[in-house]
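Continuing the batch. This is chain 6 of the set; chains 1 through 5 are on the previous pages. Same settings as before, nothing changed between runs. Recording input and output for traceability.
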Amino acid sequence: MKSPVDVSHDTNASVRTDKWLWAARCFKSRSMAGGACTAGQVKVNDKTAKPSQAVKIGDMVDVVTPGGRRILEVKALAEKRGPASIAETLYDDQTPEEMKPPPRVQVEPAGARPTKRQRRRLDRLRERW
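Output for chain 6:
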């Protein structure tokens, strides 16, 4: 069975920067990726990249995403967006640990009613006092 996304490992091939960033799931849409390039938030090999600039395997991409700054080494090329499992194979994340954002924690809204499980735990705690 053929993969829905054609991933290329050919060292001579190239893909537009905005397409690659979108396929690698750095941005939700290709227009957002192009906008980041136009705003100067994307650098390929330490040079500011335009959306139409070619990205090749081995290039270093420094990009400011909505989740924070990332430094990625291009490992494979794709022109179409696919599943996250395939997107992770397109790059090697070189972002230093101190620059990575902390993991997301789900926070309950203030003043929300406790769930049945939470209420039972509260009742058990109150019985001890």
